[in-house]
Amino acid sequence: MSRSGLTHLDSRNRPTMVDVGTKEVTHRIAVAEAHVRLPRPVALALRKSGHRTKKGPVFDTAIVAGVMAAKRTHELIPFCHPLGLDNCTIEIEDKRGGDIVIRCEVSIHHRTGVEMEALTGASVAALTIYDMCKALSHDIEITGVRLLEKSGGKRDFKR
Predict the structure, then answer these.
(1) How many structural domains does the chain have?
(2) Residue 142 placed within a domain
(3) 118 partner at 20 to 30 Å CA-CA among 3, 34, 36, 66?
(4) How far is CA 3 from CA 6, 7, 10, 14, 23, in A?
(5) Strand pairing of 56-57 and 87-94?
(6) Is 10 a known active-site residue?
(7) Cα–Cα distance between 54 and 37 in angstroms, integer?
(8) Is there a contact between 17 and 81 (Cβ–Cβ < 8 Å)?
(9) Which member of 86, 94, 131, 139 is catalytic?
(10) At CA 15, angle to CA 11 and CA 20, rounded to 5?
(11) Given this model, what pLDDT does residue 4 score?
């Protein structure tokens, strides 16, 4: 660990991957969420179409994209360990007022946590919804990307 206490810096404050080789294997779970805020006309059009656009089924495509992203997090975020996830689920809820809530839960039996995988899955699912709806409006917002909970490591966390 670095002098600053940051885990991805070595004793000389240079970037490094954390060595998890001596950590205990435990069942680790992380849950993250993201929100997509649609303008009212877009939300109504999307709901009326059964959540489909010319590009296809929006929510189904976002679920597939989010799971694929969670599985490839190590290719996107420097120093994330490549992990064979035990499970990844994405739930998408269409709330009133044009708010879509995406929840990504990831689990693994490993020496390192899966917070980044859950956050990446939720984020890419949100980006996919944006991409599939942007022809209706560019006034779509992605907000509230955050970790909701994690367990199985040194410290559990629950928001």
Answers:
(1) 1
(2) yes
(3) 3
(4) 8, 10, 8, 11, 21
(5) unpaired
(6) no
(7) 20
(8) yes
(9) 131
(10) 80
(11) 52
Residue 112: domain span = 26-153
* 14 inside domain: no
Query: Does residue 159 lie within any of the structural domains?
Result: no
Low-confidence ranges of the chain (pLDDT < 70): 1-6
pLDDT of amino acid 12:
81
Number of H helices, E strands in the chain: 4, 7
Per the domain annotation, does 5 fall within a domain?
A: no
Beta strands in 24-153 (DSSP E): 26-37, 52-53, 56-57, 87-94, 99-110, 141-151
Give which of 31, 32, 30, 33 is closest to 99, Cα–Cα. 33
28 exposure class (CB count in 10 Å sphere: 0-12, 13-18, 19+): buried
Q: What DSSP element (H or E) covers 9?
A: none
Q: Which two tokens stand for residue 110?
A: 């490993």
pLDDT for the residue 6:
63
Phi, psi of 54 (to 5 degrees): -60, -20
The helix/strand/coil state of 95 is coil
pLDDT in tens, 58-86: 999 999 999 999 999 999 999 999 999 99
Taking the C-alpha atoms of residue 103 and residue 72, their distance in angstroms, rounded to an integer, is: 18
Q: Are strands 56-57 and 26-37 parallel, antiparallel or unpaired?
A: unpaired
Question: What length does the chain have?
Answer: 159
